[in-house]
Amino acid sequence: MSMSTMYKESYLPVDHDFREQVIALATQKKHIKVFYFDPDNNLEDAKGSIIDMVTNNNGEHALIGGKEVRLDKIIALDGKPGPSYDEYDSYGNACMNCNLGYD
User: Fold this and answer.
1) Burial class (CB in 10 A: 0-12, 13-18, 19+), 54
2) pLDDT tens track for 39-62
3) Which of 40, 57, 84, 91 is deepest in the core (most CB within 10 A)?
4) Contact at 8 Å (CB) between 71 and 19?
């Protein structure tokens, strides 16, 4: 599988403990579900086992269920918050601050 998926944002290194969690799930070959942001900042999900981890000039990626998932864009991994959880939470609550067109 090629790492042709390019993100506009620079890769933000993930916490060591989170990376270790990803490696542990890969070692266990556990079937998981992951929610993440794709290169266009759309919400995506992938299901399956972590097949491999790849590091390149575009960051660290986990290959899950035939999809490339950049580690710093993971919102939730196997039901636990990931590095982009706060970004997702802010995105989800953004409309709570809007006035729906009323002044």
Assistant:
1) middle
2) 998 999 999 999 999 998 889 999
3) 84
4) yes
Residues contacting residue 31 through CB under 8 Å, at least 6 positions apart: 47, 48, 49
Q: What are phi and psi of 43, to 5 degrees?
A: -75, 130
Element (DSSP H or E) covering residue 24: helix 16-28
When divided into structural domains, the chain yields a total of 1
**The domain spanning residue 24 has which CATH number?**
2.30.30
Mean pLDDT by runs of 10 across the 103 residues of the chain is: 67 94 94 94 94 91 94 95 84 51 43
